[in-house]
Amino acid sequence: MSNSALFIKFLVCPETHNQLCWADSNLIANLNAKIQHNQVKNRGGDAIIQPLEQGLLCEAQNYLYPVESGIPVLLKERAIALNDISFLSID
């Protein structure tokens, strides 16, 4: 088992305490396209301006927690509520 796979087994959503999983590259690419067009805010209401490197997904709440410089940011206000974002088109 890789260090990454071992590491992820111990991470949980700070709200639900459900296990997190890595967001796939398509989701990250879609979010980064929206970020480029200033269409993404975190749960704290701050606009996301830097592209995402990686993310951890809490499927129970449909939240994505950013991973910055390899470090998961598991703060509720920094999570991105995926239900609030339309992935159908870039306006």
Topology, element by element:
Layout: H1 3-8, E1 21-22, H2 25-36, E2 54-58, E3 63-68, E4 71-72, E5 80-81
Antiparallel strand pairs: 1-2, 2-3, 3-4, 3-5
Work out the strand percent.
15-25%
What integer is the average pLDDT?
A: 88
Supply the number of helical segments. Answer: 2
Structural class: alpha+beta
General shape: globular
The ordered string of helix (H) and strand (E) elements is HEHEEEE
How many β-strand stretches? Answer: 5
Low-pLDDT segments: none
> Can you give the helix content as a percent range?
10-25%
Rg value: 13 Å
Task: Give the N-terminus to C-terminus distance in angstroms.
Answer: 42 Å
- Most strands sheet: 5 strands, antiparallel
Summarize the structure.
The chain is an alpha+beta fold and 91 residues long. It contains 2 helices and 5 strands.
Outline the structure in words.
By secondary structure, the chain is of the alpha+beta class. The chain has helices spanning about 5-10, 25-35; strands at about 20, 55-60, 65-70, 70, 80. Strands 1, 2, 3, 4 and 5 form a five-stranded antiparallel beta sheet that branches. The chain is globular. The model has no long low-confidence stretch (mean pLDDT about 90).
